[in-house]
Specification:
The protein has ten helices and five strands; from the N terminus they run αβαβααααββαααβα. It is α/β, with parallel strands linked by helices. The chain folds into two domains: 121 residues, P-loop containing nucleotide triphosphate hydrolases (Rossmann fold); 54 residues. A five-stranded parallel sheet has the order 2-3-1-4-5, sandwiched between helices. The radius of gyration is 19 Å and the shape is globular. Bound molecules: adenosine-5'-triphosphate. Adenosine-5'-triphosphate (ATP) binds next to α2, α7 and α10.
Length: 226
C-alpha cells in the first residue's frame, strides 16, 4: 500500500468502480417519450447519461474509435471534415450484417467505457441511463450497469403517430424501425417500473413523481443484471 493510501473497506471492495449511485436504465421504443421522461428527471436535478449522446461523443473527429473504424472499414466512413458519415455507414451496415457486427465490436466497448465514466462522475443521488436499445443490444452490456429498468410504454399506433409527426421519416420507415425493436410486450416484461405515456404530459409527470421519490431512497445494488 502507498504510505498515505486509505485501506479499502470490504464494502468498498464490493462496489463496482463505475458508480456508487443507483442507476436507473430508461428505455422505450422510438417516439415513446424517453426524452419527455428524462427531461422531467433532469428538472428534479437528476443527472441523465444518454447513450445516444455518448455514441456521438466517442465518434468525434480524431477520436480513437473513429480512427479504428476508418482503419477497419475504409476512409469512406468519414466526410471531408473528418466527421463520421452516418448516412453512409448506416446504409452500409443495413445491407451487410458482418459490417454491422464489426461496427458494434468497435463502438460498443467505447460506448460502455464512456458511459461508465459519466455514471461515475454524476453528482445526483441516483442517475438515469437513457438508452433506446438498452434491452435489444445485449452485447453492449448496458443492462448490467443498471439497478432498475424503467420502461416508457405507449400503444404502438400512438407511438407511430407521434414519431412520424416529429420526424422527417416516413411512416413506413418508422414502422420498420419499430419492427426491429423489441415488441411492446417483450420490453414491458423486462421492466421493473413502467410508466404509461398514452395520455398527456401532465399524466406522465404524475407517474414520475412517486417513482422519483422511490429512487431517492434506493440502495445501490451490487448484483449484476444479465
Ligand atoms: P426517440 O427514441 O425516437 O428519440 P423518445 O422516446 O425520446 O423518441 P420523445 O421525443 O420524448 O420520445 O417523444 C416523441 C414525440 O412525441 C415528441 O415530438 C414529443 O414531443 C411527443 N410526445 C411525447 N410525449 C407526449 C405526450 N404525452 N403527449 C403528446 N405528445 C407527446
Amino acid at each position: 500500500m502507498q504510505p498515505n493510501a486509505l485501506p479499502i473497506t470490504p464494502a468498498q471492495a464490493f462496489q463496482p468502480f463505475y458508480s456508487n449511485k443507483p442507476v436507473i436504465g430508461l428505455t422505450g421504443g422510438i417516439g415513446s417519450g424517453k426524452t419527455a421522461v428524462s427531461d422531467w428527471f433532469a428538472t428534479q436535478g437528476i443527472t441523465i447519461v444518454d447513450a445516444d449522446v455518448v455514441a456521438h461523443q466517442i465518434m468525434q473527429p480524431g477520436s480513437r474509435t473513429l480512427d479504428k473504424l476508418v482503419k477497419t472499414l475504409g476512409s469512406w466512413v468519414i466526410d471531408s471534415a473528418g466527421y463520421m458519415d452516418r448516412a453512409a455507414v448506416r446504409e452500409h451496415v443495413f445491407k451487410n450484417n458482418k459490417a454491422l457486427l464489426t461496427l458494434e465490436a468497435i463502438t460498443h466497448p467505447a460506448i460502455r467505457q464512456e458511459i461508465k465514466a459519466q455514471l461515475a462522475a454524476a453528482a445526483s443521488v441516483y442517475v438515469i441511463l437513457s438508452a433506446p436499445l438498452l434491452l435489444e443490444s445485449a452485447e453492449a452490456g448496458l443492462v448490467s450497469l443498471c439497478d432498475r429498468i424503467l420502461v416508457v410504454d405507449v400503444p404502438e399506433a400512438l407511438q407511430l403517430e407521434r414519431a412520424s409527426r416529429r420526424d422527417t421519416q416516413s411512416r413506413d420507415n418508422i414502422a420498420a424501425i419499430m419492427a426491429n425493436q423489441l415488441s411492446r410486450v417483450a420490453r414491458n416484461q423486462q421492466a421493473d417500473d413502467i410508466v404509461s405515456n398514452a395520455s398527456d404530459l401532465a399524466s406522465l409527470y404524475a407517474q414520475l413523481q412517486p417513482l422519483h421519490e422511490r429512487y431517492l431512497m434506493l440502495e445501490k445494488s451490487f448484483e449484476v443484471r444479465r
